[in-house]
Amino acid sequence: MRSISKQQLLITFIPAISILVAVVIASMFFNINMDFFTRDVSAIGNIHPLAGILSSVGILLWCVTASICFFAAIILRNIKQTANFWFLLNSAFLSIYLLLDDLFLLHEHLIPIYSGISEKIVVMFLGITVFVYLTTYRLKIFKTNYSVLLLALGFLSLSVVIDTILETWLKIGQWQYFIEDGFKWLGIASWCSYYTQSSLLFVIKANENCLTKK
Questions:
Q1: Nearest of 63, 50, 157, 159 to residue 103 by alpha carbon
Q2: Nearest to 202 by CA among 212, 192, 194, 213
């Protein structure tokens, strides 16, 4: 069995231990019991384990998308096919932000509470960021099956509009949450589908180019 390299140990344990240290610091700074940060949410809130299942699965899809984009970007970089490297890398970073925003309710709670910036301003800046991203990589996107990406953006936009603008107007009880979160779920699923297919497409084309040169 091959010995573990020092580089792998560093990559594995420095981030992992850093998170444990952050948990200890947060516990001491905010005077909150340690188990508040380490136990399962369902155990802390004493709720059913399936509570919020649609949101949880959506977060998993954000993670899948970011991981696939990162992995494909690394492959392209290692075989010196950098034409689509930056597109996939920045797509991964964007997916990670959306993952963190969904997981920790950044635009709804944490950012407004701890920075004083309103939710609508945070959403506006996210919209500007997405617009810049789409404009920057429009030529690459047009070479892919971008209709699925348009579906993703459309569904996610509808969810945001219902959440930030129409929330006070819609008085349909639990169906409001179903519609809002349903659009969000369809958007995440479309987002994951688009970037999975695009990553595969870019890697296959890069491999074909390498074989042709040989």
A1: 63
A2: 194
Do 113 and 10 share a domain, yes or no? no
Model confidence band, residue 81 (pLDDT cutoffs 50, 70, 90)? confident
- H helices within the chain, ranges in order? 6-29, 35-38, 41-45, 53-78, 85-104, 111-115, 119-136, 138-142, 146-164, 174-213
Residue 114 structure tokens: 């701890």
List Cβ neighbours of 193 (8 Å cut-off, separation of 6 or more).
Answer: 148, 152
Is the torsion defined by CA of 127, 72, 58, 153 positive or negative? positive
**CA end-to-end distance (rounded Å), the chain:** 34
Q: Answer yes or no: do 59 and 79 share one domain.
A: yes
**DSSP state at residue 33:** -
Predicted local confidence at residue 160, as pLDDT = 86
Domain residue limits at 9? 1-38
202 touches 84 (CB < 8 A): yes
- Both tokens of 63, joined, read 């993670």
Maximal CA-CA distance, the chain: 64
Unique residue bearing structure tokens 């070479």: 143
Q: Is the pTM of this model over 0.85?
A: yes
The tokens describing 188, both together, are: 């995440």
Answer yes or no: is pLDDT of 24 > 80.
yes
**Together in a domain, 118 and 185:** yes
